[in-house]
Amino acid sequence: MSAPTIARLTDIVRPCHRAEAIAARGREWYDSDPDLEVPKLAADSVVLKLGEAVRRLPEGFLDERQGDPTWRRAIGMRHRIAHEHDAVDDDIVWLVISRHARELRATIERLLDAQDGTPRPHDPT
Q1: Distance CA 12, CA 7 (A)
Q2: Straight-line distance from the first to the last Cα atom of the chain, in angstroms, rounded to the nearest whole number
Q3: Low-confidence stretches of the chain (pLDDT beneath 70)
Q4: What is the DSSP letter of 18?
Q5: Phi and psi of 32, rounded to 5°?
Q6: DSSP states along 34-89
């Protein structure tokens, strides 16, 4: 795996941690601001950044992982939030931050660990 790909994968871990931190506050908190929807906007922002970081991975890397739709779905969510914001489903965003981000982070950490044989610290920032 090339150094730029490793750097891009590392860039994805940070928004995954942020998604997990938002999800840790709970679904009640996520739904708690019906007027301004600040928690939902925060989640949208993190999912958008996550998808953008995945989009920047080399096409060959993504092609090698066609069997795992998580990568392309992250890009699709980024597109939807950025360009079709009126069609964003809050339940799907919640699913991304509460489950898929953690799974993607774990996948990336396994890839990086396999690359150099050294387990990565789980940085919650």
Answers
A1: 9
A2: 25
A3: 117-125
A4: H
A5: -80, -10
A6: TTT-HHHHHHHHHHHHHHHHHHTS-HHHHHHTTT-THHHHHHHHHHHHHH-GGG--
* Tokens, residue 37: 């929807």
Of how many residues is the chain composed? 125
CA distance 95 to 89: 10
d(CA 44, CA 19): 9
Cβ proximity of 72 and 63 under 8 Å: no
- Please give the pLDDT value at position 38: 96
Q: Which amino acid is at 67?
A: G
C-alpha to C-alpha distance for 21 and 35, rounded to whole angstroms? 22
Q: How many CB atoms lie under 10 A from the CB of residue 111?
A: 15
DSSP string, 89-116: -HHHHHHIIIIIHHHHHHHHHHHHHHHH
Enter the tokens of residue 5. 């790909």
Alpha carbon distance 106, 21 (integer Å): 15
**pTM of the entire predicted model:** 0.86
